[in-house]
Write a structure and sequence with these properties.
Blueprint (H helix, E strand, L loop, with lengths): L5 H23 L4 H43 L6
Helix pairs in contact: 1-2
Length: about 80
């Protein structure tokens, strides 16, 4: 099983916590169902955007790391025996 990068895992778990806590708080103050649905949908949209942003940032960092590794290997002088 592959582990998720911390950046992506944080977005996933953090969004779930925010969504769950918001739902609990709004139900405790007896918010109408229509309002509850709109608020939870808005949070879900922001959550999805945060996860997508985290995935893009992770991929960008991984690409930069690979490019840096390739450049470093090319810059080292070849060993001659």
């Amino acid at each position: 099983m592959r582990k998720l990068p911390p950046r992506i895992l944080g977005s996933l778990v953090g969004g779930l916590i925010v969504l769950t806590n918001t739902r609990t708080i709004l139900r405790s103050i007896e918010t109408p169902d229509a309002t509850l649905g709109v608020v939870l949908a808005a949070i879900a949209v922001v959550w999805i955007a945060a996860v997508a942003w985290s995935i893009r940032a992770h991929r960008r960092a991984r690409r930069a790391e690979r490019a840096g590794t390739a450049e470093a290997a090319a810059a080292e002088p070849a060993l001659v025996d």
